[in-house]
């Protein structure tokens, strides 16, 4: 099977744009569809209270209801999932995705964007995605404001490597 036959998706949540940038760069690099996870109710607070609000979402293990998807994620051969790190783990809307879609036997890449403490984010994602093939994982330190060009190149290269692995496997 060639590169053109592989169905690729980048699904992500982003509150402040870092994960969005990395997801868009990856999708463009490998010609993937994009799925932005959008909670039906998103609190708009950019000050310190965002940590209180987000932290409480994690503590209460919230799985917010998301806007309907325009694609069916389980139909893809390669699925990349990106999240910001919230309280050392993946953000609640990504947990909603895991609950809504029965991922099984998919080739997947997982990535996170964080402020220096990735915590157990990728470990927790792998646990939630058991039964799939996690063929790559990567994290980025505040890519919007910290060496953006380097982060972009790293994201492009990583996405290409994932695609090469999937093509090689088929
Ligand atoms: C509610 C909340 C909790 C956060 N918790 C962490 C954390 O535990 N560790 C960390 O390194 N960064 C943490 N951050 C920072 C974000 O992970 C980081 O800014 C990331 O790049 C944001 O991605 P985004 O712009 O796609 O939303 C937190 C941010 C928010 C809003």
Task: Describe the protein in words.
The chain has 170 residues and is of the alpha/beta class. Strands 1, 2, 3, 4, 5 and 6 form a 6-stranded mixed sheet that branches. It is globular, with a radius of gyration of 15 Å. Helix content is 37%, strand content 22%. Helix 1 (18-30) crosses helix 5 (148-169). It has helices at residues 18-30, 49-59, 92-100, 121-128, 148-169; strands spanning 8-12, 33-36, 78-86, 89-90, 107-114, 133-141. It has one domain (3-169): Rossmann fold (3-Layer(aba) Sandwich). The termini are close together. Flavin mononucleotide binds at residues 14-20, 50-51, 54-55, 84-88, 113-117, 119, 142. It holds the Pfam family Flavodoxin_4.
Task: Give the structure's gist in a few sentences.
This protein has 170 residues and is an alpha/beta fold. It has helices at 18-30, 49-59, 92-100, 121-128, 148-169, and strands at 8-12, 33-36, 78-86, 89-90, 107-114, 133-141. Helices cover 37% and strands 22% of the residues.
Essential attributes:
alpha/beta, Rossmann fold, six-stranded mixed sheet, 6 strands, binds flavin mononucleotide
Overall pLDDT score: 94
**Low-confidence region ranges:** none
- Main sheet: strands, sense, barrel: 6 strands, mixed
Give the CA-based shape.
globular
The total count of helices amounts to 5
Distance between the termini: 6 Å
The first-level CATH class name:
Alpha Beta
Strand content: 15-25%
Give the total of domains: 1
Bound molecules: flavin mononucleotide
Name of the CATH superfamily: Flavodoxin domain
Can you give the helix content as a percent range?
A: 25-40%
CATH topology: Rossmann fold
Structural class: alpha/beta
Task: Work out the radius of gyration.
Answer: 15 Å
């Amino acid at each position: 099977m060639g590169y053109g036959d592989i169905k690729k998706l980048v699904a992500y949540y982003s509150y402040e744009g870092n994960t969005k940038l990395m997801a868009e760069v990856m999708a463009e690099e490998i010609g993937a569809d994009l799925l932005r996870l959008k909670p039906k109710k998103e609190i708009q607070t950019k000050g310190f209270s965002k940590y209180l609000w987000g932290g409480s979402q994690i503590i209460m293990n919230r799985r917010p209801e998301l806007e309907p998807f325009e694609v069916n994620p389980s139909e893809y051969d390669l699925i990349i999932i990106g999240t910001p790190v919230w309280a050392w783990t993946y953000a609640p809307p990504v947990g909603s995705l895991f609950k809504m879609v029965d991922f099984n036997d998919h080739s997947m890449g997982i990535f996170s964007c964080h402020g220096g403490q990735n915590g157990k984010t990728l470990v927790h994602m792998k646990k939630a995605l058991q039964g799939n093939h996690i063929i790559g994982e990567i994290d980025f330190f505040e890519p919007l404001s910290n060496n953006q060009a380097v982060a972009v190149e790293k994201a492009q290269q990583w996405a290409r490597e994932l695609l090469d692995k999937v093509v090689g496997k088929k």
